[in-house]
Amino acid sequence: MSETRNANEEKKKPPLNGRRALPLNNSNDEENMVPELEAFGLIPRGFNPKDYLQVVDVHMFKEPHEINKQQHHTDKYYNPKLIVRRGQLFQIQIDFNRPYKPETDKFWLEYLIGRYPQQNKGTYIPILVGDVLKPGEWGAKITHKQNNSIRLSIMSSATCIIGKFRLYVAIWTPFGILRTKRNSAMDTYILFNPWCQQDAVYLDDEKEREEYVLNDVGIVFHGNINDIKLRSWSYGQFEENVLDACLFLMDKAEMELSGRGNPIKICRVASAVINSKDDDGVVAGSWDNTYTYGVAPSAWTGSVDILLEYYSSKQPVRYGQCWVFAGVFNTFLRCLGIPARLITNYSSAHDNNANLQLDIFLDDEGKVDPKLTKDCIWNYHCWNEAWMTRPDLPVGFGGWQVVDATPQETSDGMYRCGPASVQAIKHGHVCFQFDAPFVYAEVNSDVVYSRREKDGTQVIEKIDKTHIGPLIVTKEVGGDGMLEITEDYKFQEGSDEERLALETAVMYGVKKQTIQDTLYHPQTDVDMNFQVQKAVLGSDFKVTITFRNNSRNYYTATTYLSGNIVFYTGVTKNEFKRHSFSAKLEPSSSSTSDVVIKSSEYMSDLLDQAAFHFFVTARINETGKILAAQKATVLEIPTLKIKTQGEMVAGKDMSVTVEFTNPLKQTLENVTLRLEGPGVLRTMTKEFRQVPMNSTLIWEVKCIPKRPGLRKLIASLNCDALRHVYGELNVQIQKP
Asked: Which residues of this protein are catalytic (predicted)?
């Protein structure tokens, strides 16, 4: 068998290419041959591999009721293989032919993906067995030994490639490396992990994770703004073969394996491959009401049939319209572990020349002239939002990202759209990739009705600024109701903030034809800046905005401050402060204004790391010019104190005390304390029902340290009102 296999391998070998030593590694499906005996040189006669440690069996604990799938929230996948999420521990057991002796036996694990595995690309991962597992980094540690078996705890990297890995156990002998046979039962799928803080798709709310990752049905809102209709859609991300079909999409797009740990890249690739234009992708669109040789878009009830048909036939599935593309895309994202939701934008603009206005041309009688009118308004348009950090953008633009697989316009030469930061769209910062101007136009265009006179002059009859994108909705978390999210995309129609965002978008290059085209002349004679006062969590603080008018003119500035609570990764959770005021700018002088931020405004929504992001924008009323600034800031979080009593000697009793004083103006409820110290004590937790304000909690723990040397004790405190409270202490454990 292996002979023919090798011959086939030879035949399949790509032609030599002067530009790269190895061909592209862009298929999860293809494999390389891994030698079972990798000799170091000549093998002496009398060498018998059976004299060395041998693997008899490997247990993957891959049943839905077993520990791995339970802990990794993958027990719903109808798939017999092990499925884990990255950056989180999982267990396997190896049975050897005799007891394992760490002094003399040396073995390691190898995870491989694709046809040309390379260590520096993350497609070949050797894992040595060590004593310490670092969170979010590859490693393995023996947790149990019994007779001929060992139990391993394995940690995968929080940035690891997403896909199906092949596992080998390798054993070192003096003459070569012995490996287990290729065994597909040991294949391991690794997915994104919204439960892991180091993962780029980390989502902090368990109810949201259950909805946006684990819910396999959803609702599509359609109809029009005056008559909203809804229908259910089965995403079916856990059904048989759907995971393989989703991984196949990335192979189909020839996406380099080394990029498959990055949700930004995966979304961009998927938004192209889910439509059939330019790459024979999954769904062929049709909007002309003739659906010969296919299924009418409205007939589909879910994504599973579409994905499985494509996976087996490799031909585009006919037909889809926007909600079908969005439904399939949602399945793809949730299946791989990226939190996702389906969005409907009512009265959605499809602006052909991206000039932020939909030009509707009228004839002499005032009727629409179809020859001249190229732009269109969709009753509704569905797209998706995917949740992720955006390390490629400034802080504050992570969180929900618009991705759209419906083929409307090309982006970098292919029909695709996104990911575009919803926060960037709201604030008009459309300079940030990808395709933000297009999405901004979909929700913000003006409708301009104009008529051409006989002599060729154009007369504007009417400008409707509120027609486009008046309502943007998605399914509510944990129910079938409708959640309006228009405010995530735009400020109140007609508000100062909304016009400021528009002017910001225009400043960043969104074309907006004014009636007489004016060039961009920034306001150079006024400077604006702001400072945020350093503050401890739970106290009030102020933001000071300073204007310096360097001119001899008297100006007034309409100023707007937006305070947002953000994750430490820069992802915005919500806006907790809005404040507008008018500043008078006397000639050749400075003026400052303070905005007080009260603890009551931010405490209820505060996140883990107590981080804020402020936007300040000002419009000089006399000139219409915009000044803009943004800053991220973090509050000081109180810490835990750890103390030890008694002598610290291995094998003897010692006592550890954890202390914490509640600094907030409220009682903390359901507080969990956690203490651990590798080699000193096993992880222990303690619940406290209440910690009143200003009171101090003391927790004393007795333990017997096992290993001498410098050790670290780590404690954390967690409750709804307060997170990321830590303390640590280095302790020197003496030899007995």
From this structure: 322, 381, 404
| Residue of 322, 382, 417, 719 marked active site | 322
What's the rounded Cα separation, in Å, for the pair 45 and 42? 9
Q: Residue by residue, what is the 3-state secondary structure of 236-279? A: CCCCCCHHHHHHHHHHHCCCCHHHCCCHHHHHHHHHHHCECCCC
Confidence of residue 457 (pLDDT cuts 50, 70, 90): confident
| Residue of 189, 183, 186, 109 whose CA lies nearest to 150 | 109
Helix (H) / strand (E) containing 208? helix 206-209
Q: What is the pLDDT of residues 266-310, one digit of tens each?
A: 999 999 999 999 889 999 988 766 667 877 777 677 898 899 999
Alpha-carbon dihedral sign for residues 425, 415, 342, 350: positive
* Residue 409 structure tokens: 């316009």
Catalytic residue among 244, 404, 435, 488: 404
- Please write the tens of the pLDDT for every residue from 335-364: 999 999 999 998 888 766 667 787 777 655
Q: Domain 212-508 adopts which CATH fold?
A: Coagulation Factor XIII; Chain A, domain 2 (3.90.260)
Percent over 90 (pLDDT), the chain: 44
Q: Is 205 assigned to a binding site?
A: no
> Is the predicted pLDDT of residue 567 greater than 60, yes or no?
no
How does DSSP assign 427-455, residue by residue?
A: HT-TTSSSSHHHHHHHHHPEEEEEEE-TT
The residue with greater pLDDT, 599 or 421, is 421
Domain positions in the chain are 37-191, 212-508, 526-634, 641-733
Distance CA 573, CA 567 (A): 7
Annotated active-site residue 381? The verdict is yes
pLDDT for 480 equals 84
- Using alpha carbons only, give the angle 360, 365, 371 rounded to the nearest 5 degrees: 45
Q: 397-401: which pairs have CB atoms within 8 A and are 24 or more residues apart?
A: 397/421, 397/423, 397/424, 397/429, 397/432, 397/570, 397/572, 398/566, 398/567, 398/569, 398/570, 398/571, 398/572, 399/423, 399/567, 399/571, 399/572, 399/573, 400/488, 401/264, 401/267
Q: Does the annotation list 444 as a binding residue?
A: yes
Question: How confident is the model at residue 266, as a pLDDT?
Answer: 97
Catalytic residue among 222, 381, 427, 429, which?
Answer: 381
How many residues does the structure list for the chain?
736
158 vs 195: CA distance, rounded Å: 11
Q: Name beta bridge partners: 632.
A: 613
Q: How far is CA 720 from the centre of its chain?
A: 23
What is the token pair recorded at 374? 């190229």
Rounded Cα distance between 180 and 36, Å, is 6
- Cβ atoms of 215 and 233 within 8 Å: the answer is no
Q: Give the CATH class of 37-191.
A: mainly beta
What are 617's two structure tokens? 């924008």
Per-residue buried b or exposed e for 386-395, using 16+ beta carbons within 10 Å of the residue's own CB: bbbbbeebeb
Is it true that 37-191 and 526-634 share their CATH fold? yes
Query: What is 641-733's CATH number?
Result: 2.60.40.10
The per-residue pLDDT for 168 is: 97
Three-state DSSP class for residue 592: strand
CATH 2.60.40.10 holds for 526-634: yes
**Active-site residue 404, yes or no?**
yes
Q: Is 498 annotated as a binding residue?
A: yes
Residue 527 burial by Cβ neighbours in a 10 Å radius (0-12, 13-18, 19+): middle
Phi-psi region of 478 (alpha: psi -120 to 50; beta: other; left: phi over 0): left
What would you measure as the largest C-alpha separation in the chain, in angstroms?
103
Q: Please tell me the pTM assigned to this model.
A: 0.70
